Amino acid sequence: MQNKGLIKFFAILFALVSIYQLSFTFVADKVKSDAKSFAGNDPDKELKYLDSIGKEKVFNLGFTSFTFNEVKDKQINKGLDLEGGINVILQISVKDVLKGLANNSKNPVFNKSLADATANQKGNQTYLDAFFEAFEANSNGTVKLASPDIFANRSLQGEGGIDFQMSDAQVKKVIKRKVDESVDSAFGVLRKRIDKFGVTQPNIQKIGETGRILVELPGAKDVDRIKKLLQSTAQLEFWETYKIEEMGNFLMAANEALKKTEINKVETKAVVKDSLNDLLTGGKDSLATKKGNNPLFDKIIGQGGGPVLGLFSPKDTAVVNSYLKRSDIRVLLAPDQHYAKFVWGKPTDIKDAKGKEIEAIELYALKGNRDNVAAMSGGVVTDAKDTFDQMGKPAVSMQMNSQGAKAWEELTGRAYTQKSNIAIVLDDIVYSAPGVSSGPISGGRSEISGVFDVTETKDLANVLRAGKLPAAADIVQSEVVGPSLGQEAIDNGTTSAIVGLLLVSLWMMIYYGKAGWYANLALAVNLLFLFGILASLGAVLTLPGIAGIVLTMGTAVDANIIIYERAKEELRAGKTLDEAIKTSYSWRGAMSSITDANVTHILTGAVLFIFGSGPIKGFATTLLIGIITSLFTSIFIARIFIDRNISRKNDLTFVTNFSKNMFNNFHFDFLGVKKWTYLFSSVVVVVSIVSLCINGLDQGVDFVGGRTFQIRFEKPVQAEVVKDELAVVFGSAEAKVFGKDNQLKITTKYKVAEHGVKADEEVNKLLFDNLKKYYSDGLTYDKFVNAYEGKKLGIVQASKVGPAVAEDIKTNAYWAVLGAMAIVFLYLMISFRKWQFSLGAIAAIAHDVIFVLGIYSLCYKFMPFGMEVDQHFIAAILTVIGYSMNDTVIVFDRVREFLAGKTKGSFEQIVNDSINTTMSRTINTSLTMIVVLLIMFIFGGESIRGFIFAMLVGIIVGTYSSLFIATPVLVDSISSADKIAIEERHKNAE
C-alpha cells in the first residue's frame, strides 16, 4: 500500500480529533448528571442549577478551558425520542399574510382564490403557489394582481412595492418577497420567545419555502403551556366595552327570537339568578325565564355585571357564538350597536348552586366599527414585565411609546368621563376589562390583571416583549415524548448496539481468525470516527440514528468480507500471501465490487436524507457517515494491520478450522431452477398486490393525518373496550396493545384539522375524562398529560400530524422510492455499460419492495407489534433498496468478471459458476446484517420494532432476489446472439 505513512498520520490525527470532539459530550453528561443529583429530580431546580453554572469553567485542557455553555454547544445532542421534550412544526398562515398585504380586500376573485388555494393545495405545493394558480384560473385575465383593490394599495406602493401598471409576473415576485419577510419576522419573534422560555438547547429552523417553522424543545414538559406560548400571535388590542345595561334589550330580543328556532334543542338546566335576569324580568321569576324555555339565558351559569354580560360553560361557547353571529339575531342590535363584537374572557372557576367548583367563561361586547379596528393597538408597547397588582395578585405591567402614551391618555380619559370600561384583549381573548376611576392615565404605563398565576404572567410578558407574529401560527405537526420513555429508548439502543457489536465481532473471529481480529479493530476505529464526526457536525442523535449506527457495524465488515473472500480465492489459485493481498485490494480484485455496492448505498441514503425529516434525517445522517467511515477503516486501517503481519512473515490464511471447508467447491444450478423461482415470486407478487387492494396497509398518521397517543395504564386493559369507549366521544378511534399489555397506542382524527390550542386541550381532556376510571384517584389531568421525571402512567408520547403535512410526507415518500430506483438504474447502467444489468437490479428491487409491502398488508392486523406504514417504514424500504443493491452488485460484479474472462462452458454455465463463487461473500454480508437487525428487533424497543422488521424481511428477501431474480432476469434479457458471441469467445480463449 502506497503512502502508508501518510494514511497512518491522518488516521491518528482523525482519531485524536474524534476523541477531542467526544470529550465535550462526556463532560456535559457528567455536569448534567451532577445537576440531576443536586436537584433531586426537581426539573426546575435542575434547570436553575445548569443556568447558574453556564458561564463557569467546567473543562480544562491545560492550554485552554471551556465554560458549561461552550461544552454544551459542542456535545452530541440527543433527539426528543432519547431526551424527551416537545417537537412542533408551526405553519405561518400565508393566507393571513396575503389578506394583510391586500388590506383585507373584498374583491370576489381574490377571496375565491384564497378559498380555492386552501381547498386545492397539492402535496408539496406551497400555499402561495396554490393561490397564484387559483387566481389565474378565477380571473382568466380579467383581473390583475396589481389591481388597486388588491395588491396595488397604498400600503404596498413606493420603492420596491407594487403599482397598478405591473404585470402579474412582476407582482408575484414582490408578493413572494413580502411573504418571505413575514416568515422571517415570525421566525425572529418565535426565537425571542423560546430564548426566554428556559429550556436547554432549543432548536428552531425554517423548513424550506413552505412557511413552516420547526421548533424543538428538549426536556420541555408542560405541553399546554408551550403550545400557547408558540401559537399566540400576541395581537394586543384595547377596546371600549358596552355595559350589561346597554346590551340588555338586545339579549332579551335575541333570546325571544331564538325560541322560534331553538326551543326544541335547548337542554334543561337551572337558571342562575344574576344581574342580567334581574334586568330583564325585574327580579321576578316569570314564565319567560323558567328553565328550558330560554335558548340563550338557560346557558348562563354565573352572574354578570359591568362589562360582563354573563358567565357560560366552556362547552356552550361554540353554540352561543353561532347564535350571536346569525344575521337574523344581529339585526336586533340597536343602530349604534351594529358593529358590536362579542368575545370571551379567560376561563375562571366559580361555584355552582351546590357549592361545587365549575369552569366558566365571561362574555363581553366590544364597541366595534366598520373596519373592525380596535380603539388602540398593542404595537405601541415597548416593554412588558411580570409583576403583582395592588391586591398582590400576579399581573403584567406595560410601558408604551410616546404615541401610545398619548392615545392611552385619551382613551382612559374618555372611559373616565363615560364611566365605561376598557377591555385588554390579546388574540381575541379578554384578559381584563378595568374601569378608570381616577381620571386619564398619563405616562404610557398600564397593567393587565385578571385570573393569572405567576407562570402565565411570565409567559404573557415574554410574548409581549418579543412582539406579535405577522400572521397566525398553527401547529400542524407535533410530537411529545416523556423523559422516562426517552431513557428507555437510550437503554434499548445501548443494549442492541453492545450485543450487535459483540456478535458481529465474534463471528468475524470465528470465520476469519486473525484477519477477523483486524476487521474488528477497524470496526472499533470506525465507531470512534463515526461518533467524532457526529459530534463535530453538532448532529442530533435519535433512536433511528442509533439503529443507523448499529447497522453501520453490520456494513462496516462488509468490505472486509469482500476483500478477505477475494484473498482466499487468490491463495487457493496458488499466489503468495503478498500477491493475494495486492490483488484483492486492487480494482480488478474487490475494489470494483466495493465501490459499486457502496455508491448505490450512498445514493439511496442521500435520497433518504433529502426527503426525510426529524429522526429519519438522523438515521440517514448516521448511515451516510457510517458508509464513508466504514470504507476508510475497512480499506486502509485493516490493511495496515495486514501489511504489518506480512512484513513480520506471520501466516495469514483468512480461515479457521471452522470455516476452511465452508462453500468450497459449492455448486448449485441457480439458473436451472429459475422457472420455479419465477413461479414462486410471481405468486408472492400477485398475492401481495391482491392483499394491498383488499386489506390495504395500516397507514400511520404521517400519511393520513391524525393524533396518536402512547398511554400507559396501571393494569392491563382491553384494547377493544377502550376503542369502543373512545369512539363514542371522538367519532372514530383505534386502540392497539403497544408492547406490554398495560400500554395502548390510541389513534384518532378528531379535530386534527383544527390547529388551535383549544382543540388540543379539548382532545386531551376528553381522553383523560374517559380513561381516568382506569387509574387510581391520585392521577390528575396535569400528571396524565404533561411530562415529568419518572413518569410511568398516562400519556408517555403523543403526536399530531395535520392533513396538509401528511399529504406532503406521502408525496415525499413516493418521490423518494421512485427517485432511489431511478438513480440506481442509471448508475448501474453507466457502471456496467449494459442496460440488462440495470433491468435485473430494478426487477429485484421491485420484487423486494412488493414483497415487504405484501407482508405488511397481510400481517398488520394480527402481528403483536406495530406495522404502520409511515416515514420510518419508507426509511426501511430505502435501506432495503440500498442493501439489496449491495448483494446484487456483488453477484453482478463476479458475473461481469467471468463473462469477460476465459472460463469455458455454455453461457448459463459461466453465469452459474460466477454466482457459486460469490456464495461465501453473499451469505456472510447478509448474515452480519441479519444478525444486527435481529438484535435490534429483540432489544431495540417497541417504537422501532416495525421499522426494523421491514428491514429484516427486506434483507432476507433481497439476498434471495439477488441470486434468483436479478441474475435470471439479466440472463433472459441478453439476446441469443450476444450469448453465442460470448460462448465463442470463451471457447477460443487460451
TrEMBL record:
<dbReference type="InterPro" id="IPR048631">
    <property type="entry name" value="SecD_1st"/>
</dbReference>
<protein>
    <recommendedName>
        <fullName>Multifunctional fusion protein</fullName>
    </recommendedName>
</protein>
<comment type="subunit">
    <text>Forms a complex with SecD. Part of the essential Sec protein translocation apparatus which comprises SecA, SecYEG and auxiliary proteins SecDF. Other proteins may also be involved.</text>
</comment>
<keyword id="KW-1133">Transmembrane helix</keyword>
<feature type="transmembrane region" description="Helical">
    <location>
        <begin position="585"/>
        <end position="611"/>
    </location>
</feature>
<dbReference type="InterPro" id="IPR048634">
    <property type="entry name" value="SecD_SecF_C"/>
</dbReference>
<feature type="transmembrane region" description="Helical">
    <location>
        <begin position="493"/>
        <end position="512"/>
    </location>
</feature>
<dbReference type="InterPro" id="IPR022813">
    <property type="entry name" value="SecD/SecF_arch_bac"/>
</dbReference>
<dbReference type="Pfam" id="PF02355">
    <property type="entry name" value="SecD_SecF_C"/>
</dbReference>
<feature type="transmembrane region" description="Helical">
    <location>
        <begin position="623"/>
        <end position="642"/>
    </location>
</feature>
<comment type="similarity">
    <text>Belongs to the SecD/SecF family. SecF subfamily.</text>
</comment>
<feature type="domain" description="Protein translocase subunit SecDF P1">
    <location>
        <begin position="184"/>
        <end position="240"/>
    </location>
</feature>
<dbReference type="Pfam" id="PF21760">
    <property type="entry name" value="SecD_1st"/>
</dbReference>
<keyword id="KW-0653">Protein transport</keyword>
<dbReference type="InterPro" id="IPR054384">
    <property type="entry name" value="SecDF_P1_head"/>
</dbReference>
<keyword id="KW-0812">Transmembrane</keyword>
<feature type="transmembrane region" description="Helical">
    <location>
        <begin position="676"/>
        <end position="697"/>
    </location>
</feature>
<feature type="domain" description="Protein export membrane protein SecD/SecF C-terminal">
    <location>
        <begin position="473"/>
        <end position="639"/>
    </location>
</feature>
<comment type="subunit">
    <text>Forms a complex with SecF. Part of the essential Sec protein translocation apparatus which comprises SecA, SecYEG and auxiliary proteins SecDF. Other proteins may also be involved.</text>
</comment>
<keyword id="KW-0472">Membrane</keyword>
<dbReference type="GO" id="GO:0015450">
    <property type="term" value="F:protein-transporting ATPase activity"/>
</dbReference>
<comment type="similarity">
    <text>Belongs to the SecD/SecF family. SecD subfamily.</text>
</comment>
<comment type="function">
    <text>Part of the Sec protein translocase complex. Interacts with the SecYEG preprotein conducting channel. SecDF uses the proton motive force (PMF) to complete protein translocation after the ATP-dependent function of SecA.</text>
</comment>
<keyword id="KW-0811">Translocation</keyword>
<dbReference type="GO" id="GO:0043952">
    <property type="term" value="P:protein transport by the Sec complex"/>
</dbReference>
<feature type="transmembrane region" description="Helical">
    <location>
        <begin position="873"/>
        <end position="892"/>
    </location>
</feature>
<feature type="transmembrane region" description="Helical">
    <location>
        <begin position="519"/>
        <end position="540"/>
    </location>
</feature>
<dbReference type="GO" id="GO:0006605">
    <property type="term" value="P:protein targeting"/>
</dbReference>
<dbReference type="InterPro" id="IPR005665">
    <property type="entry name" value="SecF_bac"/>
</dbReference>
<dbReference type="GO" id="GO:0065002">
    <property type="term" value="P:intracellular protein transmembrane transport"/>
</dbReference>
<dbReference type="InterPro" id="IPR055344">
    <property type="entry name" value="SecD_SecF_C_bact"/>
</dbReference>
<dbReference type="InterPro" id="IPR005791">
    <property type="entry name" value="SecD"/>
</dbReference>
<dbReference type="InterPro" id="IPR022645">
    <property type="entry name" value="SecD/SecF_bac"/>
</dbReference>
<keyword id="KW-0813">Transport</keyword>
<feature type="transmembrane region" description="Helical">
    <location>
        <begin position="923"/>
        <end position="941"/>
    </location>
</feature>
<dbReference type="Pfam" id="PF07549">
    <property type="entry name" value="Sec_GG"/>
</dbReference>
<feature type="transmembrane region" description="Helical">
    <location>
        <begin position="837"/>
        <end position="858"/>
    </location>
</feature>
<feature type="domain" description="Protein export membrane protein SecD/SecF C-terminal">
    <location>
        <begin position="792"/>
        <end position="972"/>
    </location>
</feature>
<feature type="transmembrane region" description="Helical">
    <location>
        <begin position="947"/>
        <end position="971"/>
    </location>
</feature>
<dbReference type="GO" id="GO:0005886">
    <property type="term" value="C:plasma membrane"/>
</dbReference>
<feature type="transmembrane region" description="Helical">
    <location>
        <begin position="813"/>
        <end position="830"/>
    </location>
</feature>
<feature type="transmembrane region" description="Helical">
    <location>
        <begin position="546"/>
        <end position="564"/>
    </location>
</feature>
